[in-house]
Input
Amino acid sequence: MILSNPKFAEHGETLAMKGLTLNCLGKREEAYEFVRKGLRSDVRSHVCWHVYGLLQRSDKKYDEAIKCYRNALKLDKDNLQILRDLSLLQIQMRDLEGYRETRYQLLQLRPTQRASWIGYAIAYHLLKDYDMALKLLEEFRQTQQVPPNKIDYEYSELILYQNQVMREADLFQESLEHIETYEMQICDKLLVEEIKGEMLLKLGRLKEASEVFKNLIDRNAENWCYYEGLEKALQLSSLEERLQIYEEISKQHPRAVLPRRLPLNLVPGKKFRELMDKFLRPYLSKGCPPLFTTLKSLYSNTEKVSIIQELVTNYEASLKMNGFFSPYENGEKEPPTTLLWVQYFLAQHFDKLGQYLLALEYINAVIASTPTLIELFYIKAKIYKHIGNLKEAAKWMEEAQSLDTADRFINSKCAKYMLRANMIKEAEEMCSKFTREGTTAMENLNEMQCMWFETECISAYQRLGRYGDALKKCHEVERHSPSTWTTGGKEPQMHP
Output
């Protein structure tokens, strides 16, 4: 309406806003045309420069967007929205000094806002000026009117952040005193105990630390960090002492896996055989698919590998013969599925050892008896991948996927195997089951910065000799790479 009036047809800010609207509708070229026209009409307008920056940001041209924001601030230096947008891009590009200056301006303009204080403190934290960061956080904390007996989630997170900065600054005593002072106002009670245990260890207060880690193990007996902390606190020197501790914990928590798994890392020979036998039987009996994964780290020790192989092959022979783990047992026989899980384990075992034909024999035998178990087809695909037959691997992974089409993990694995086999179109169709409607799977995955898919695509195009498509895909990855990769004039760094 405004632009249709001849008097205002060249109104810069209106042209810029039209360009911004067109950009939201996906009309990039028209959007840039209108915004540039608006800038030519009114180069002194902060709105035009801000909108131009927003367009550059949407194209991930962050350096250009920052220049536009700075030009806008020359014309309106106290504009809160432009300052916020600038600070976001500065932190994106790891311009920490610039981020600190921008957050300081925002703090001056809005000293009563929580975000102003926290943002400014974060700037100093990232610059490793811990003293200044702590001073700002404490100043802000004192302005918060939270009664000691009341629990406020945001206040709780503020205290935990303050404590995190203390720990990073190696202020262990201060961190411990701080967490004990505000313990009742913190919502995350588990984290409080973890911080206490860590700080008591750092301060050498081992007896207190051991009590904390014992309590943590009572809460969660499957966290290996707690066992590591307990061992350090108790200063266990001999193997017997360590095994005794794990045995006691295992009795207290009979259903926990870790107290029985960790000793397997420690013991050799006959003792290993005894403990491994006790460990394997219940999981093979009830059917535990991740059993092999749990033990895979032991495969760097050849002696332990041979013991595992001997035990499990003996189980198989005995189960086939009389339905027990050992020919000398009697009583109630093992369920028929036990043999299935033993053979499933052996398939993974021989696959790990590179004996692929034997692994295939085992997995085929299991599939013949139970053709409805996803895990079996998944392992078969994995074995073919290790053999180097990628087409066959993709075929069996697709078979696994067809058994449960709602399983996103298997869906993604299937797409990856297809890409490895240079089946790009099929992989895209597979991914389309979990991408947004109204756009192609490839566009949506690129928008989500799904790096594993994009890099596998590039490799597939390269193997097929489609170098143009591979290069195009590389440019797409490069466009969104500033969010994960930056050099900053130094060695490249990876950022999460």
Residues 175 and 181 are 10 Å apart (CA to CA). The first strand starts at residue 485 and ends at 486. The beta strands are 485-486, 493-494. The radius of gyration is 31 Å.
